[in-house]
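Researcher: Let's walk through a ligand-bound prediction step by step. First, I give you the protein sequence. Second, the SMILES string for adenosine-5'-triphosphate. Third, you return the three-dimensional complex as structure tokens. Ready?
Model: Ready.
Researcher: Here are steps one and two:
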Amino acid sequence: MDGFIELDGVEKVFSVRRKTGFLRRERREVRAVDSLSFTVARGEMVGYIGPNGAGKSTTIKMLTGILTPSGGRLRVAGIDPSRERSRLAHRIGVVFGQRTTLWWDLPLIDSYRLAHRMYRIPDARYRENLDRLVELLELRTLLDTPVRQLSLGQRMRGDIAAALLHDPEVLYLDEPTIGLDVVSKAKVRGFLRELNAAQGTTVLLTTHDLQDIEQLCSRVMVIDRGRLMYDGPLAGLHEAGESERTLVVDLERELPPVEVPSARVVRVEGPRQWLAFPAGQSAAPVVARLAAEYPLVDLSVREPDIEAVIAKMYAEKAVS
Ligand SMILES: Nc1ncnc2c1ncn2[C@@H]1O[C@H](COP(=O)(O)OP(=O)(O)OP(=O)(O)O)[C@@H](O)[C@H]1O
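Model: Step three, the predicted complex:
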């Protein structure tokens, strides 16, 4: 193994006690991560996806040293995370979309001052990093605002800055765009792309939004029931799952199902129709044809969700 992040046959088994009667308890084992092996090279930006309960958070927690693996070998920058958690902490940054690491009642800048001391960042470097991050993440006018008053998108940008003040070589992001509007998502994605390109930061990104992966990662790993199901480009995942995108079309009036090559109508509701077409294909020819031949009022494209792609992957495997 010669990656920056290395996992070899990693396992995590939780022992769960379940109530089965008034006084009876049953002990059950949950294998959250099962013989997981992969490597991520320095500077890579990799998507890590899978359905709920697949084992993504458990993997990230083992990579930060919060959880100790039940078996196998795991290294980040040559460090065994659970044995040398505080040494590793200086080299990694973590952002959880669902939970903030910022101090809720204090102005944003105070969380940064605390990180300055906690990570013992040299003064000049702290000032330089703070200045750069505040500029790139558009936080200048928010520094004196208590975190609880920030919008979700502002808070997320604040969290990302906090995770990067100490110049980590690797950044773990757990759902960084969850709940954000289109503009905020674009800002976060733009920043991450820039960070990876300019600083060479290694990024492991967990998300349920396939557009995050599409716009940021050349490689995606799919985990399900603790096992690695797929490791490769996103396009290959669409092929493996034969996934489809959906075009939602609003017509001027109710019409019979429209007829367009390489797309099929899957639902009709009054003047609105839903057309499915292969995810690997551009929507442009379908849209052009619709606009030319039908009284079009509005349309939008819906990406397949990860659960649907993975469900199809399973279905494919079952018949092949
Ligand atoms: N501390 C724990 N004790 C017992 N079981 C756990 C614990 N943490 C996770 N699990 C179980 O391990 C499995 C994997 O959970 P994990 O949180 O890693 O999934 P996930 O892929 O991150 O899911 P989500 O997308 O919902 O966050 C689940 O069955 C979960 O219930």
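Researcher: And what stands out?
Model: The mean pLDDT is 90. Residues 251 and 312 are 30 Å apart (CA to CA).
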